[in-house]
Design a protein that fits this description.
Number of helices: 3
Shape: elongated
Largest sheet: 4 strands, antiparallel
Number of domains: 2
Radius of gyration: 25 Å
Structural class: alpha+beta
Number of strands: 6
Helix content: 40-55%
């Protein structure tokens, strides 16, 4: 009968020695730098979440995480995300309009593009006030 030994260490075997996974190194570095490990885990990968500078994030996914404590927080977050998405869309459109304005020769088209730019800038101002 042969006995198989299973290593349950977080260190992985490589050649004649052991090494630490990239994820474990990142977690160790976060702890060394003063980040706080939270009791909550990432909803995607179930890795413990960390907080640094009042921001919560997953070290494995390398993404920010927002903890929602109730329906009001969820409504606020949904509204904020919608405004951010709208802002990104308008900024993209402004870039496209700017490029079109640079090459356009027809005065009628220039006026249309300028009018659209003016409207988008007004909307951006409103978004910034709402945020």
């Amino acid at each position: 009968m042969s006995l198989e030994i299973i290593c349950v260490s977080p260190l992985k075997r490589f050649g004649g020695g052991y090494y630490m996974s990239d994820e474990l190194k990142r977690i160790a570095d976060l702890l060394k730098s003063g980040a706080t490990m939270l009791s909550e885990t990432c909803p995607v990968c179930h890795t413990p979440l960390f907080m640094r500078d009042d921001k919560i994030f997953c070290p494995k996914c390398n993404k920010p995480v927002i903890i929602i404590s109730g329906p009001e927080d969820e409504r606020r977050l949904t509204a904020s995300m919608a405004l951010s998405n709208l802002e990104q869309t308008i900024l993209q459109r402004l870039g496209e309009a700017n490029a079109a304005l640079k090459v356009e020769k027809d005065l009628g088209e220039i006026l249309k593009v300028s009018s659209a730019i003016s409207l988008w800038l007004t909307i951006l101002e409103k978004i910034k006030r709402l945020k």
